[in-house]
Amino acid sequence: MVSEQQDSVTNIHKRWSITRLNPSSYKISVSISIAFAALIITLHFLYGSTNRDNNLFSSLFYGVSVVLAASILDYITLRGTPLNKISKVFHVSAFGNLLWSTVLGAGLAIDSLSGVYGSFNIYLLEGMLITTGFRLAIFTSVFGSGLIRAVGVSLVEPLVFTLVVLTPGQLYDTILQHSASFLFSSFFVFWAVLWSILADKAGRPHVLSTFNLLQAFLSAWTEQKGGKMEEIVEARAKNRRIKSYVLKFISTGIPQRDISVVIPGVHPGPFKPIGGSNLPYELFRFFGKRAIVVHGASDHSFNIPSKNELEKYLFSFNGATVSNTGSTCTDVVQIKRARFVVTGISFGGVVLIMLSTTSGGMEDVSAEITSNLQEYACYLGFSKALVADSHNAMGGPLSAEEQHSLISCAKEALDNIKSSPQHQFSVGFSTSFDHGTETRLQVQSREDIGQGGLAVLAIKVNDQRYALGWADSNNIESHIRASVLSNLSIRGFNMVEICTSDTHYTSGKRTKQGYYPLGSMTNIKEIIDQLERLTAHSFDDIKECSFSLLSVDSEIKVMGKGQFDDYSKALDRSMNLTKVFLGIAGSVAFSILLLT
Asked: What is the DSSP string of 432-451?
């Protein structure tokens, strides 16, 4: 059963597609704005102008010039609003002119179907007021303009552009002759004002201003300015005691080198550049770039809300205490059941269990699954069970039946590990940071890989060689895991699993998921070649080791479950309100077109 918190996060994530509506660059928006402005002028020349002496090309020149100049005027008059940027102004202009053209096209289509031809100029006037209402709504919600200021600014470009198409006298005559239609069309400006007031309050009482939250999010996402968003989420974050673990391997030779497997008690996120979004790399760097940072059993409620809290969390690792030590381990055990695969190995009394799938994927492993496995491991006599989510395939939350299958698979692995003999072991490690600037930059330049790059942990025990692949990425394309493991097997390397850190440093992309999973931007052959190279280097670097289990206690703020529930509800209310307002506005617009 999916928890309410998971539902809230999933619901918020589904709305991410809204952020993809804007054109990818301001140049495209400028082109759209000019194209539809030219279309409006051309339609007026064909259907609305009674003076055939007018020159279309001079009208186009003046119209396009006015659109560009008015956009710059918008930018100037909106100075001081939180998200005023010339690129966003051009986006608004593009959508406004597109909307205006749609109104004109609909009016002409209705005339053609009915055989009754109304005044084109009243369609032009209705389009002007609808566009004004649209601009007003955007300037209040996205730009953060005050309502009175937004009303004034939103009218400027449509009105000035209309005065290029019509003379002031023609505009006055049109309003006078069609005063009823003009008054009805003015409804759209009033409607936008009412929407702005109600939508901003939609999240109350828990979210006082939906627009402030939206602007803080957009500032962080588009401008990489996370201060306002961090201030909002940290104010509502809750202090929690967090338990994290580090499985450290210490080479017995000289020089002594440490290699670590880090299992954080917090979740990477919420998104770049907020809080702990780059948590895996920060931990990777904390441990001298000789570590893999796996995904522990934590969900989004354990997101670190700010950079200050992230620093507190990192500092707490300086106070880590040693709870177990030893110098032997078992062979790697791997159990497959249904679509799940569980990989495990025990170092003394400390067992490391990695949960994965052979096909499809799964959402973050729940704390219930982890606690169930830890209780069973304790029953078997293990001193500690470390559970890691491989996070290596795209998928949704597990059903109750799937959770049962995964737990059964993991328990079978624990049974086999418990009965396995232990031997002296050696560990090697290699990362893309170890092999020259060219390799590092080649990996880190990819948008589906975080700053930690790729790494491989090698283990040699009982004359058997095992490799564990790692990527500082937010998930992996579903077919990548099987391809990597099979290809490396053919090349003579036994890579038992590949996992990711679930970094949110690569989030905020214009994709359906909001990020690029590994393999979506980097060619699979390159991934395989890089991991093969790192695997070979890790076995070249192998040294006999002992191990220590470090426990880390942290007291920091995490976002908590309630924030996501409140944001999800505020988003739902705003979206539902918007749908109602758009439905009514569309019906009114169509009715006016029919009546005129």
From this structure: GGGSHHHHHHHHHTSTTS-T
